[in-house]
Amino acid sequence: MRHVAKLLTVSAFTALMATTAMAQTPKDTVVMAKQIDDIISLDPAEVFEFSGGEVVGNVYDKLVRFDLADPSKLYGDLAEGWTISPDSKTYTFKLKPNVKFHSGNPLTAADVVYSFQRAVVLNKSPGFILTQFGLTKDNVTEMVKAVDDKTVTITVDKPYAPSFFLNCLTANVAVIVDSKLVKANEKAGDFGYEWLKQNSAGSGAYKLRAWRANEQYTLEANPDWFMGAPKVKRVVVRHVAEPASQRLLLEKGDVDYARNLSKDQLDSIKSNADIVQQVGDKGYILYLGLNQKNPNLAKPEVREALKYLVDYDSIERNIVAGTYKPHQAFLPKGFLGAIDDRPYKFDPAKAKELLAKAGLPNGFSVTMDTRSVNPITDIAQAVQANWAQAGIKLELIPGDGKQTLTKYRARTHDIYIGQWGPDYQDPHTNAETFAINENNAEDARSKTLAWRNAWDIPEMSKKTGALVFETDSDKRKAGYEAIEREHQKVSPFVIMFQQVEVAAHRKNVDGLILGPGSAANLYSTLSKN
Amino acid sequence: MTTSNISWGGRSAVWGRIAGRELSTVAITFFGLLLVTFLIARVIPIDPVLAVVGDNAKADVYDAARAALGLDKPLWQQFATYVGKVFTGDLGKSVLTSNLVTDDIKRVFPATLELATLGTLIGVALGVPLGVLAAVYQGRWPDQLARLIGLFGYSVPVFWFGLMGLLLFYAKLGWVAGPGRISVAYQDFVDPITGVLVIDAALQGEWEAFRDAWSHLILPAAVLGLLSVAYISRMARSFMITELQQQYVIAARVKGMSEFRVIWRHALRNAFVPLITVIALSYAQLLEGSVLTETIFAWPGLGRYITNSLLNADMNAVLGGTLVVGAVFIGVNLLSDILGRLVDPRTR
Hints:
Helix content of chain B: over 70%
Number of domains of chain B: 2
Shape of chain A: globular
Radius of gyration of chain B: 24 Å
CATH topology of the largest domain in chain B: MetI-like fold
Distance between the termini of chain B: 11 Å
Oligomer: heterodimer
Distance between the termini of chain A: 55 Å
Structural class of chain B: mainly alpha
Order of helices and strands of chain B: HHHHHHHHHHHHHH
Number of helices of chain B: 14
Largest sheet of chain A: 11 strands, mixed
Strand content of chain A: 15-25%
Shape of chain B: globular
Largest sheet of chain B: none
Low-confidence stretches of chain B: 1-7
Number of strands of chain B: 0
Mean pLDDT of chain B: 86
């Protein structure tokens, strides 16, 4: 008993000792709570996830950037300017003088050549953004050439629309890496891949100081950045998976930003005078994919009926307010050719009429693979209730993200509720996946979303593919608008929402830029009082 | 209890036999563990390539990644390659973290170790006396209280408990620090030696950092501690009830021994033998890592590591993590066996 009593006393004492005054975040450091467990690599030739994209966007610079206010406008970043040859196949970029990498090495045309070469040869997930222009590992040093120290030419294989090519250069895979530094860390001809996964060799506003997977990354300001030194010295982003924990940390002032709060948490911190919310449009589209292998879903009337059977307004109001907004076309707002038409409203009577026409007056039974995360589950349940009004029995099959995705990619689903984010800032990225399916066979090489839903569309595929060669920007825009309108009518996609990213922050901290893609979430303008 | 007539030679022979038996059991257990985990991870309907290349990758990139993971080879060959590597101490690389699995485990296991150890200490310190009191005062208020605490610990979901704890002790009262292992202001002060933050901070004399780390640790440990209090107190109670009905207890009482000595010296000592196994099992369970607690408290521990890897079919990480869990179970079992033998003269 004496021992037990001693133990008790000790544990009570130590518990009391834990009473500490809360440390606020350091003055020159901005601390964020965010879900960052999607980062598997920080090599810009490989990064293709949301969180990794944000790191690369702040650590590296590109030849061209898009205007954050109007993403369809482009301007030079590392490039002072560029010219395009009359045959639309060769682009000549003049680099800005006096740009230095974090290492102190000057940024030259040789770095540009090396960066493109490694991205094309490594050919990781985002590699196609460059290889779709005919760059291959065999010809890349021919196609991308240094004319002199500050001039680079890039040649593409076909006369693509310049807007298409230049938009692709704003993607993370086209950032410029410090070739001297990376070469020094090469192992067995891996272009420094093993090393760059966990280190940085950029010229951007911040340099990577440390990344521990599923835990944290730390960025340190680059005082010599060619756009001017950032105001905040360090940015620490910690992985906090649970949004409720993020909220508590923010309210206590232990973090300056909480990046993944849900609608409920955003509602409940509205009354807190120390916290401000900021929003930015994100390109992610939330949709239902209707597998055309299912004979009921293959009927055009059924597809249309289901579009009338979603109570968009109520879902927005009750489930996703502030984090998603209604959107019914495959191009997100901010893209060239995006339309804001919303032809579908909740109309069970009209849906029943269409179902009757399809020979299914009493509805039918169907399943939907649903990721067990919010708000996906809640939306799926709302849709289930909506469809019941027309007699459609929707069974939800819950699963983890990768599990439902594996099934979707194998085309063994009936309906899939999913999100799609654009790969780069050009309409072709979404147009390709939603409206091109060149080969509907099981062993097709290109498994676009249209393919995954077994939607056989030779005509539309041709029309959509041709738009990457439309050099007249206005015509190109009109072309996408027309395809989107047709798509809205006939496609097996019930497009419902576009994501809005919300960041909640302490009043004394400000300046985070929430751009249209995660690579355009910028820290360089952060400030703290 | 401390005296023994067995000669040293005889004793070491006994221990040698035991060690031999345990070792062969360990080897078989490990192999079985690897095989089952490997097969489970292969039959789950999750495509491991997705974790590497993501959803939007083109076919050639997908195929290259699949080949790099060795998934194009037959199943038995994949398993043979893996086991062969394990014998040389190579657990491979995790595709999610880009690190060697051994490095990852060195990072996440100490985080769980520190949580589980403190949790178990709390569990024992509170659970054993509570269980003894409940047994002694069977059916009266201490017993009811113990039952209530047990019921609470068993039935309240741990994520709710964790969040409420944070809300009260962190957000409202400010007694403890919030989610995470250490505040940003202190995180570069402590060099990793053991990986257990509070120990490293103490070793280096960084008392500010120690206080901060301790303040982060106490609440999640207490949450886990409550779970083991519930379990340990119930078991302690039932063991004590059995002991208190034994004849030696009656004999001790008849001889006029004080009730205090009867309960705490004699009955509890005997109840402790089975209780050691209970405590060891509860400790081993906590050492597996508690996914929900680790998630809520943003604690980069083993439980979250294994779960996250499994949901992404990150094979090397899952297998490596499972090996660690297996080793922990076997190790703790072994330890409880040895402790049991030391405490209980009959097993010698």
